[in-house]
Amino acid sequence: MLVVKIGGGEGLDVEAFLDDLARQPRRYVLVHGGAAELNALSERLGKPPTFVRSPSGHVSRYTDPETMDLFLMAYAGKLNKRFVEGLQRRGVNALGLTGLDGRLVEARRKRALKAVGEDGKIRVLRGDLSGTIERVNVELLDALLERGCVPVLTPPACGAEGEALNVDADRFAAQIAIALRAETLLLLSNVPGLLRDLDDESSLIERAAPGELDALIQDVAQGRMKKKLLAAREALEGGVTRVVLGDARGPEPVTQALAGRGTVIELPQLQSLQSQPSRP
């Protein structure tokens, strides 16, 4: 079983990605983000995005009810159905769902959000519609896969009261991979992988051990890459054997990532043998 997540940044070659994905011989699930589309939509409709930085240095979107409306338009509406359409045109029986549908991905709402202001002081923000993933409805995913459907999944998640909650798409993908006991998780975006220098693509870190992730998150990763490494760590701790941070800007991005192009993070062989068996 393979879980592929494509990011929502600019510069991606979506047509090449879909061509390559549709040719894959193994069963797979697609997860997608949509940050660039959401940002553009927010600007067009006069609701510029607001980002906050946590005391630990992670940047996230402040999601009030109006922003959630835009989130649903971008992620669950346009992008999800365009990915489904693209796969259907290539002969793949894709079915698009959010984490809300069938309580596919359940999350606990964060009642307060700590943010560091421009003056360096920590403030507590309330009213944010974001959450922490707690459960994946794997029975629903299994039923779809058994019927020959390819799930195309995207946030938001479903809160305890049925409310839509913004969750990070990379960590969403990691939890899907864990639930399905996937062998491999691909996190594809608009960079070659983890770079030591954001301005130098030749500074790619080609391989990393799970034990190095904390240091890489703290000392090397910047911006969105911090979340991708957090997702990689969660996936590996949950039994996924290998995570690849790959590039979706060129031809055959899935095939290239599966061949090890990008940043490969995988369990040692002994741990791999002791992990849960992957699904076919």
How does this model look, in words?
The strands form 5 sheets. This protein has an 8-stranded mixed β-sheet, sandwiched between helices. Strands 3-4 form a two-stranded antiparallel sheet. The chain has a two-stranded antiparallel sheet with strand order 6-9. The radius of gyration is 18 Å and the shape is globular. The protein has a single domain, classed as Acetylglutamate kinase-like (Carbamate kinase). The model is unreliable at 270-275 (pLDDT under 50). It has helices spanning 14-22, 35-44, 65-89, 138-146, 169-179, 213-219, 224-237, 253-258, 269-274; strands spanning 2-6, 28-32, 51-53, 59-61, 94-98, 105-109, 113-116, 122-125, 131-136, 150-154, 157-158, 164-165, 184-189, 207-208, 242-247, 263-266. The chain is of the alpha/beta class.
